[in-house]
Amino acid sequence: GLYVNELLSRVLEQETNYAVLFFDYLKCLQTLAAEEHSPEYALRQFELALLNHLGYGLDFLHCAGSGQPVDDGMTYRYREEKGFIASLVVDHYSFTGRELRALAERQFPDMATLRAAKRFTRLALKPYLGGKPLKSRELFCQLVRKQPDTPPDDV
User: Fold this and answer.
1) Could you tell me if residue 106 is inside a domain?
2) Of 58, 61, 144, 73, nearest to 102 (Cα)?
3) NCBIfam families from the xrefs (predicted)?
């Protein structure tokens, strides 16, 4: 929840009405509290909803270069402010057509599509966050590092 709150405070404009976003926020917090899915699933759903509310309209289902529908087996490279363009390059900005379809449907049936969603939302949110890292992410990383590998022995 801390991450979601920090994200909202960093990307939303002051004095702007985001009443509809509240329901996505509430759904995210309820899902996190219920622990029905991995927290990653709820967070990706919320980040995509947030981008939508910010007016970040991106077509996941068509190649921005040709206008053709994406092919599950092809690779597409994300270009900020343009969309996804068919490419032979495979890097951090590359997504398969299958991953793009999962993003469009906001359904992540496996770890590969969930990781792709995380990669995309980080890329898409970066301009809104500027160069300043999220404190909640730093805190989470510190907590993960401090957890012992084995439980302590009870004496």
Assistant:
1) yes
2) 61
3) reco
Residue 47 reports pLDDT greater than 90: yes
- Given a contact cutoff of 8 angstroms between Cβ atoms, the answer to whether 104 and 88 are in contact is no
The CATH number given to whatever domain includes residue 77 is 1.20.1440.120
Cβ–Cβ under 8 Å, residues 3 and 43: yes
Confidence of residue 76 (pLDDT cuts 50, 70, 90): very high
Domain ranges, residue 7: 1-57
Two structure tokens written together for 56? 């970040």
140 within domain boundaries: no
pTM of the predicted protein model: 0.81
Q: What percent of the chain has a predicted confidence (pLDDT) above 90? A: 54
Whether 44 and 86 map to the same domain: the answer is: no
> Which amino acid, one-letter code, is at 114?
L
Same domain, 65 and 53: no
Q: How many domains does the chain have?
A: 2
Q: In angstroms, rounded to a whole number, what is the distance separating the alpha carbons of residues 116 and 122?
A: 10
Contact 6, 135 (CB under 8 A): yes
Q: How many CB atoms lie under 10 A from the CB of residue 142?
A: 9
Q: How far is CA 150 from the centre of its chain?
A: 31
- The β-bridge partners of 77 are 85, 94
